[in-house]
Amino acid sequence: MPAAQPLPILCFPDPRLHTVARPVAAVDERIRLLVDRMFATMYEANGIGLAATQVDVHERLVVIDVSEERNQPMVLINPEIEWASPEKRKGEEGCLSVPGIYDGVERSIAVRVRALDTAGQSRTVEAEGMLAVCIQHEMDHLLGKVFVEYLSPLKRDRIKSKLLKAQREAQRA
Ligand code: NI
Question: Is the pLDDT of residue 1 over 80?
Answer without folding.
Answer: no
